[in-house]
Amino acid sequence: MLRLTFLGTGTSQGVPMIGCNCEVCRSHDSRDKRLRSSVMIERFDSAPEKRPADKLPQQPAHAMYPRPVGADARIVIDAGPDFRYQMLREGVKTLDAILLTHEHKDHIAGIDDIRAFNYFEGRAVPIYATERVGRAVRKDFDYAWNFLQTSDHFYYMATKWLSDGDVHSYFNPYGSPYEAFINYMNVLSDFEIEVDKACEAKRVRIHA
After folding, report:
1. Cα(103)–Cα(84) distance, rounded to whole angstroms?
2. Which of 73, 152, 157, 192 has the fewest CB atoms within 10 Å, measured from its CB?
């Protein structure tokens, strides 16, 4: 069984839009409160138990099923700035993959919040995209791929986090400050070797 959930059906600005005074943005109708566009596809090897409709008055269709649900597979198409709220609202605990349709911010701005899944599931979450979209994501979220350049890494090397770093430790890939330090020094050593190679190659070209 497959289930498709519309996580958001709004425009790139969302609905209502900041500063807009049109009839839709001023509406009190819940159908005029729309998050940025995204969908979730879930696969169930056996159908989830359905809740009695009479006990859920005026609820959206997907609310007839328990949340959170134990889907056998779950992917999300696009992770915009509302991604975190959408995952919390739907009670999502696990995520198997994300598909990015294009690189506009209303479709990729929530990528950073994938880290929670990384921590609690203890694994990477695959992201599928075209080469062009992949380049844009790596550029916009370079700190996620080049984490050694971020302040967090130096935080992991410090012994201070042992006493007050609970929040940071959720995303800490190291078992101790010592491990973080060793990894950082190894990376610096490799970087120094590559710089020396590049400089030597440049000298050879200059003197040739």
Report:
1. 18
2. 192
Residue 87 and residue 94: Cα distance in Å, rounded?
10
Which residues contact residue 138 at a Cβ distance below 8 angstroms, ignoring those fewer than 6 apart? 145
Q: How open is the CA angle 187-189-194, to the nearest 5 degrees? A: 95
Contact criterion met (CB below 8 Å) for 136 and 109 = no
pTM given for the model: 0.62
Low-confidence ranges of the chain (pLDDT < 50): 53-68, 208
Gyration radius (Cα) of the chain, Å: 23
- The C-alpha atoms of residue 177 and residue 185 are separated, in whole angstroms, by 12
pLDDT tens figures, 11-48? 998 899 999 999 999 999 988 999 999 999 998 877 65
Residues near 159 by beta carbon (within 8 Å), at least 6 away in sequence: 177
